[in-house]
Design a protein that fits this description.
This protein is an alpha/beta fold. The protein has 12 helices and 14 strands. Strands 2-1-3-4-5-6-7 form a 7-stranded mixed sheet, sandwiched between helices.
Amino acid sequence: MNVLLIRGKPTFMDFIVGIPIGLAYIAPIAEKKGHHVEILDLALESSPEEVLRAKVMERKWDLAGISSMTAEWEGAEITANLLKSIDPSITTIFGGQHPTISTDQVLSNEFADLVCLGEGEDTFGEVLDTVSSGGDFASVSGLAFKKPDGSICRTAPRPPIHDVDSIPLPAYELLDLDRYAVAESARHTPKYKRAIQIFTSRGCPWRCTYCHDLFGKKFHPRSPENVLSEIELLYNDFAIREFMIEDDIFNFDMNRAKKICDLIIESDMELALQFGNGVRLERLDEELIQKLAAAGTHHMCIAIESASPRIQRLMRKNLKLNQVNDVVRWSRKYGIETLGFFMIGFPT
């Protein structure tokens, strides 16, 4: 089959929010099954409609996958509407945080055929087999779809992928990484223009009321050696010099976090790290911060959310606020710029 994976053009800003990493993760699943796969990132385009029309006309596409966070949903809607208007026979599958959380809303649209709930790799692989064989989607776990009568069917939940090392590395070769290096980014200013986001783990055991549940509520880490192999691949083959860690909670296992730092330090690669999210306050000590700095970390975000113990309990964040000053002091000591996240106007 011919499979087109798309990120729509955001309507809320002109910045690039990194590479479409979710699409890059599921692309190898289709490639390994022998399908032709391309990634189209309309966020890079000044004339997204023109680019999409040209791409759709290049060949007969059997399946289109569209990934979306909530802030990107309007752009995804525009993309999917246009896609279906050009070729109504294309099967569309939506994935990412927004379709997982707001499944009924997504499937209420005529342009939406399927929604992948949660992690995409295994579900997407079974969807490919089902589409190519003309099988029944009801047999695919972790999926939602519309029945002929218009009602929505949710299949059995799919268990999380426990062996994260077994997941193929993202299909970086399907992305034009040079274009991301020159694009204006909404992220913290990198030290090196050739910067890219990576995941070293999935899931988080904390149960903050406002957070997504895409990867489940258990910590599923990649091994330090597996993480280093990806960094070395990007460093040597794609000249990437800065890595933005996107984990839900990178430092849940402090010894693992320190080992990753040690391996980077021992590699003698000249690179930078930044943590735009996913660093838990209580899982930081001075030794880890020192190692993070030695490994190239120059920026780190701490999600404090509220300085009110009552609000902390209400949002189930339960942060140990007395540790904030220590962490900020250590970060300053070792030259890591630290930013705090705060929620203003939380209910009550």
